[in-house]
Design brief:
The chain has 163 residues and is mostly helical. The protein has 9 helices and no strands.
Length: 163
Amino acid sequence: MTMRRSGALALLAACLALAGVDTARAACIDETLTHAARLHEFEMLMMNVSLRCSLMGVDMRPHYEAMVSAHQAQFDGAAQRLQHYFATSGQAETRHGGLYDRYATLIANRYGGGNTSLDSCHLFDSVVVEITRAAGDSGRTLGAVAQAMVEHPVLERATCVVP
């Protein structure tokens, strides 16, 4: 685990503790919430990749935006589940947008860096196009790709013992 990643996990765990997440609930998030966290991380990952790739001359943003639009219900549902989780975790503080906003920022920052090459940009672009094409499959393709790319989301690692 890299120093940056372990620092991010420690920060998230501290935020959860400060928010008053009860011990039983923090023991491990359920599969529905894990799936929501995975989708959210996947969306942030692809957003950041699309931005980095556009700087390299591969403008995959239109394809990324089409994917988000085609799967808006899944991405919105994931965000709502996460917002509800953080809002019902004993969070009282809203000075800085609340715990969900801190979590979302942490995830965006986690995927903000990374190795980007023309080959990886073209590969990610083709993945996004295929996910968009599969919009009619009730999110199965999106879920499978998100599972493959984000096996254990940060929130799961912060709240569960992950192998």
